[in-house]
Design goal:
globular, 89 residues, Ribosomal Protein S8, Chain: A, domain 1
């Protein structure tokens, strides 16, 4: 990945297959060793048609499981907050 993305708890999914990538994210989220984690999916530049494959799977997994992710400006990584936010009540 180009650039210098640093995060105390980063999970780099480059080189993993679809389901291995989702399983890796799930394991990292369950460990909850930090207030947030950075998930590096890549932008799909090496995928067929240069379309992201891992990102949509990770995004769907996060949404389905109630996690909120902030996707970084170039779209190949997100920060997932693990600490509960303020209540809507």
């Amino acid at each position: 990945m180009s650039g210098n993305l640093r995060h105390p708890r980063a999970v780099d999914l480059h080189g993993l297959g679809r389901w291995d990538a989702v399983e890796t994210v799930e394991e990292a989220l369950l460990k909850r060793s930090a207030a947030s984690i950075c998930v590096i999916t890549g932008r799909g530049r090496h995928s067929p048609g240069q379309k992201p494959v891992i990102k949509p799977l990770v995004d769907a997994y996060l949404q389905r499981n109630g996690y909120w992710a902030r996707w970084h400006s170039k779209g190949g990584a997100c920060t997932v907050d693990l600490e509960p936010g303020p209540s809507d009540d």
